[in-house]
Amino acid sequence: MFKYFILRKQQQLFCYFCGIVLAMVLMLLFPSVFRGSGFYLLLSSVALFWAGLALYTRHIDRMRKPEVSPLVSIRDGNQVVAEVPRHEKARLEWEIFRDDEVFRQQRWELTGLTGRVISRGLLYTPAVMLVGIGILAWGSPQDAIQLINALRNMPAAELVHQIGFVLCLVLQISVISVLIADVVAGRGLPNVFRRALLDRLPAEFCLIRRGTER
């Protein structure tokens, strides 16, 4: 059982990366909940991915050993592209999980996605704030004047805190909007593991030949 928790180097790096990203997202979304406990949140996030990967590796190791097993469907999006015995699917997944290049590629694609989402969020944040200020000034000029006067009379430390809070909130909204737009456009989250599984499917199990999908 415990041998599955001894991960390969690329698997460890993958868990560290995903754990760090998850901890940062949780701290941004719920700063009051996780204030002062960032280190423990980071450890818990990494441990979550580490344990999940180890337990799933154990699962597919057990599933790949029988010689006969029921058929399971393999999907590419909403389309079933193959039906393979469960032990054959587990065998392919076992090979993929032993392939360091798959984990390296998945980590790089997630890094690229994170950078793209953050950069686009930073780009859209000023525009969103300007639009919000414009709507407030146009729809309720008196409230806009009161807000400006309140900001002018606010202590510098509190003003910086409030501006930082608003920027963080608008950035979160922008990042979530970018992610939703990617999902709607059909891009979604990169999944190198799924692509590797589809590429390694034996031809005799495929219902649709790769490259001929419509």
Offer a quick outline of the entry.
The protein is built from 7 helices and 2 strands. The protein has helices spanning 9-29, 38-63, 86-97, 100-139, 141-153, 156-184, 192-199; strands at residues 71-76, 79-85.
Describe this structure in words.
The chain is mainly alpha-helical. It has a domain at 1-63. It is 70% helix and 6% strand. It contains seven helices and two strands. It has helices at 9-29, 38-63, 86-97, 100-139, 141-153, 156-184, 192-199, and strands at residues 71-76, 79-85. A two-stranded antiparallel ribbon has the order 1-2. A hairpin with a 2-residue loop joins strand 1 and strand 2. The longest helix is centred in the middle third of the chain and has 40 residues, at 100-139. It is elongated and about 75 Å long.
Low-confidence stretches: 210-214
Contiguous helical run count: 7
The arrangement of helices and strands along the chain is: HHEEHHHHH
**Strand-residue fraction?**
5-15%
Q: What does the main sheet amount to? A: 2 strands, antiparallel
Transmembrane segments: 12-33, 39-56, 121-139, 159-185
Keywords: Membrane, Transmembrane, Transmembrane helix
List keywords for this structure.
transmembrane helix; single chain; membrane; two-stranded antiparallel ribbon; mainly alpha; transmembrane; 214 residues
